[in-house]
């Protein structure tokens, strides 16, 4: 594997989950692959789970790991081509990327959407430049429009917990005070759409996701109706995608918060969220603390999804 930025890069999802579960049962069996190899993790944005789980995954494989927080101690980076660099940005990404590639064997990148220019965000300008100019295999640790390591971990978690061959999985928008990217929701759609699950997306009017991500998912504007008979409820906030509202918070309607009364409409569904989560906005304490909450197993599986991707990249070096 030379690149991991979307669901297509993983190939067969069933083979990927099978391999992930083998790794989970024997996570130190491939230490020889990473010997004398170095992973560089580059963060343009904050992280808890991605940073720790990806570093742990690389260490499980015997790798050395370097972490660069671009906003803490590195030169400020210009990302646009053709600009006169007379401001506070001292270095251009087009030099920085190949330089970074000189010091490592694999690169992981986290770079969120700016949420002001939809075209720029959906062109994935930052991670695509790493893929093009680093000379190294590159994987996404969440880019502007997708978070594939999260979605892969979510898929592993669903496969571990499902009791029906074709579970009903519901992605529900939930309120949040800040403007958040669509990346987790987009990616979750993309990964659910390659399975044969019964997949439903529910959100208020105005929160429609990009059609290329929604694909063949059923969209249901009535959240309660969407929850009926569900086996997995995946909650997430995202800001508006459409037109002039791109990146805006259109609603903080707490009637969309996931609570016990709504979970009672489901078929004893599991609750899922990628974390970090705002209690009282996205979900009530009662639901996230219930025995049906999978938020911690999901986070634990981030180590496994990352290790599967890094292992495949090391095997192809
Ligand atoms: N879910 C996730 O990506 O968490 P972090 O932002 O803490 O890495």
Which molecules other than protein and nucleic acid are bound? phosphoric acid mono(formamide)ester
Major sheet description: 5 strands, parallel
Rg is 20 Å
Order of helices and strands: EHEHEEEHEHHEHEHEHEHEHEHH
Unreliable stretches covering 5 or more consecutive residues? none
Mean pLDDT: 97
The percentage of residues in β strands lies in 5-15%
**Which secondary-structure class do the elements indicate?**
alpha/beta
Report the span from N to C terminus: 9 Å
Give structural attributes.
about 325 residues, 12 strands, binds phosphoric acid mono(formamide)ester, 12 helices, 5-stranded parallel sheet, alpha/beta
Give a brief outline of the structure:
This protein is α/β, with parallel strands linked by helices. It has twelve helices and twelve strands.
Give a verbal description of the structure.
The chain is α/β, with parallel strands linked by helices and 317 residues long. It has twelve helices and twelve strands. The strands form three sheets. The chain has a five-stranded parallel beta sheet, with helices on both faces. Helix 10 (260-263) links the parallel strand 11 (232-236) and strand 12 (270-272). The chain is globular and about 55 Å long. The site of phosphoric acid mono(formamide)ester has 9 residues, from helix 2.
Task: Please render the helix and strand layout as text.
Layout lengths: L2 E2 L8 H13 L12 E6 L5 H12 L3 E6 L7 E2 L12 E2 H10 L3 E5 L7 H5 L2 H9 L4 E3 L7 H14 L6 E6 L9 H10 L5 E5 L8 H4 L3 E2 L3 H5 L4 E5 L23 H4 L6 E3 L12 H4 L6 H21 L2
Parallel strand pairs: 1-7, 2-3, 2-6, 4-5, 6-7, 8-9, 8-11, 9-10, 11-12
Helix pairs in contact: 1-12, 2-12, 3-5, 6-7, 6-12
The site of phosphoric acid mono(formamide)ester has 9 residues, from helix 2.
């Amino acid at each position: 594997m030379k690149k991991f930025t979307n669901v297509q890069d993983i190939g067969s999802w069933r083979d990927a989950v099978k391999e992930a579960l083998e790794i989970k049962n024997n996570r130190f069996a491939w230490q020889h692959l990473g010997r004398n190899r170095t992973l560089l993790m580059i963060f343009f944005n904050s992280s808890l789970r991605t940073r720790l789980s990806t570093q742990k995954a690389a260490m499980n494989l015997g790798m050395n790991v370097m972490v660069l927080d671009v906003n803490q101690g590195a030169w400020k980076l210009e990302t646009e081509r053709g600009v006169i660099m007379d401001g506070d940005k001292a270095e251009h990404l087009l030099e920085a990327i190949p330089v970074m590639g000189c010091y490592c064997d694999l690169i992981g990148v986290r770079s969120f959407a700016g949420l002001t220019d939809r075209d720029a965000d959906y062109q994935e300008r930052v991670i695509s430049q790493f893929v093009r100019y680093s000379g190294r295999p590159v994987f996404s640790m969440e880019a502007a429009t997708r978070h594939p390591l999260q979605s892969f971990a979510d898929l592993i978690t669903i496969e571990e917990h499902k009791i029906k061959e074709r579970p009903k999985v519901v992605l529900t928008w939930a309120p949040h005070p800040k403007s958040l990217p669509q990346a987790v929701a987009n990616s979750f759609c993309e990964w659910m759409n390659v399975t044969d699950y019964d997949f439903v997306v529910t959100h208020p009017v105005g929160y429609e996701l990009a059609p290329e991500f929604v694909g063949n998912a059923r969209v249901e504007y009535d959240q309660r109706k969407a929850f009926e008979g569900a086996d997995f409820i995946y909650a997430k906030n995202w800001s508006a995608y459409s037109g002039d509202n791109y990146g805006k918070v259109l609603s903080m309607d707490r009637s969309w918060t996931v609570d016990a009364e709504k979970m009672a409409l489901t078929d004893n569904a599991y609750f899922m969220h990628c974390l970090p989560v705002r209690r009282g906005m996205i979900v009530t304490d009662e639901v996230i603390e219930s025995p049906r909450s999978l938020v911690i197993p999901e986070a634990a599986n981030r180590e496994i999804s990352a290790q599967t991707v890094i292992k495949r990249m090391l095997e192809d070096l």
